[in-house]
Amino acid sequence: MENIYILVGIALFVMGIWGFIVTEHLIQKLISLNIFTSGIFLVFVAITYTNEKASSIAIALVLTGLVVSLAAMALGIMLIRAYYKSEK
What we know:
Layout: H1 2-22, H2 26-48, H3 56-87
Helix pairs in contact: 1-2, 2-3
């Protein structure tokens, strides 16, 4: 069953990288990076999943990563907003 989660995580990873490379709009690039990190988190938890239970260390690391990712997303949005305001 965890193979499905690994495959979905890899698909998210690839879509995030592809979206970051292909798009030119900064907000879309930021969203692509968020999708990329979500794929990494999903693969990490799926790999550490054993005996009907995920590792508590892996869950703690993923939760910490999600908080850091959210803070980076907010900072990125503010920087992009300041960039577009300075262009006008």
